[in-house]
Specification:
- About 0% of the residues lie in helices and about 40% in strands.
- It contains no helices and 26 strands.
- A hairpin with a 3-residue loop joins strand 18 (about 215) and strand 19.
- It is elongated and about 85 Å long.
């Protein structure tokens, strides 16, 4: 399934949805706008693979999506927002899951297995993963969900289910993950290089810091000041895609340099995210930053002995700041190299310069800005 949008689906349901008189109450799957299910056991000849890419489920009363029974599943660029009963539930042999945004799930109406069974999935979850042999999971954003379980996992054959480069913030829940993980033989999932407001030990994690989403676009789009920018796993297999116009920097919607961002907009598949459904369309330069760089006015100008040149970078970039005369001859290189986000100042001494007009040239990648300065003796 690719490039699909499901909005505003509503179906009247009794609450609780599985009354005690239902003989299948312990096994019935409920609460999904989309449900993929294979029954009949494994087929050694014909394998089944689920492919989910750029699928958006917005404001659906009957929950998000469940994928059950396949040999493999690939889930990329999945958006589940403002749904009820549950977000996503996956039960397959091998799972690749990346760039998933789940927000605003209110999953208390699916009254199943409460008090719950340790082995049966409750479906009152933002994200549930069950009976996985192998998994590669990264760049998730789970924010502002109200669920019994935030991230429910159980019966995982992978030596240790590990989630990378994600943001789990501002959620309300009774259990962060499955309580059975208090038993040593069923360890909880590992979270690595993840921003979260929960005491959950893991390599490279960031705790109790606001993810600083873009003030105009909101979640899941990060602002350049977000602590999640360039804070993901340092391995090249996770890194953001490069902007061909500005080598060494990430292509929007990722930010910063090539090290992976945490959350939905980071990683090697972020460029595949379909942003056409966002109310504010993608700008030529994202609204989260006014420009990639700016050469500000020198002060004082005109000057005699010294002036200060200033330039601002929206993210780390390779720069060259040079001074030219009006014949186009380079007088000197004032600053050069990889520079960090923010404002940079360079002091230019005028004692070796003859009176006259000079041109300051700032080069960032293949783009340039200039301004004239006047030396008076």
């Amino acid at each position: 399934m690719e490039d699909c949008l499901f909005v505003g689906n509503v179906e009247t349901n009794p609450v609780p949805e599985n009354p005690p008189s239902d003989p299948f109450a312990g096994n019935r799957q409920i609460g999904s706008t989309l449900s993929f299910f294979r029954s009949g056991g494994d087929n050694p000849v014909r394998q089944l693979r689920y492919e989910i890419s750029n699928v958006h489920l917005l404001d659906n009363d009957d929950g998000g999506i469940d994928l059950i029974g396949a040999d493999r599943a690939s889930v990329r660029n999945l958006v589940i927002k403002d749904t009820h009963r549950m977000g996503a539930y996956i039960e397959v042999d091998t799972l690749e899951m990346t760039n998933v945004w789940i927000e605003g799930v209110d999953a208390w109406e699916a009254n199943m297995n409460y008090p719950f069974s340790y082995w049966s999935p409750p479906f009152q979850v933002a994200l549930g993963i069950h009976k996985i042999d192998q998994a590669r999971i990264g760049n998730l954003t789970l924010v502002d969900n109200n669920t019994q379980f935030l991230f429910w996992t159980n019966d995982i054959d992978d030596p240790r289910l590990t989630v990378y480069n994600s943001i789990l913030y501002g959620n309300e829940y009774e259990f962060f993950t499955h309580p059975v993980h208090s038993i040593a033989e069923y360890p909880p999932p590992l979270l690595r290089y993840t921003l979260l407001d929960e005491d959950y030990t893991g390599e490279g994690n960031i705790y109790y810091e606001d993810p600083a989403f873009d003030p105009v676009l909101g979640s899941p789009w990060l602002s350049p000041q977000s602590p999640a920018v360039d804070a993901g796993h340092p391995g090249t297999e996770w890194q953001d895609l490069e902007n061909p116009e500005i080598p060494g920097t990430a292509h929007w919607p990722s930010q910063g340099d090539l090290r992976a961002d945490m959350g939905f907009t980071g990683g090697p598949h972020a460029l595949d995210i379909d942003t056409s459904w966002v109310a504010l369309q993608r700008p030529q330069q994202p609204l989260s930053r006014p420009a990639a760089f700016q050469l500000r006015s020198a002060y004082p100008n005109p000057f005699n002995s010294q002036t200060t040149l200033r330039y601002v970078l929206a993210f780390p970039q390779q720069v060259k700041l040079a001074l030219y005369n009006l014949l186009g001859q380079r007088v000197t290189v004032l600053d050069e190299g990889l520079r960090s986000t923010g404002e940079h100042k360079v002091h230019l001494q005028g004692d070796t310069l003859a009176s006259g007009v000079y041109v300051v040239l700032l080069e960032v990648g293949n783009r340039r800005q200039t301004q004239k300065i006047l030396v008076l003796k």
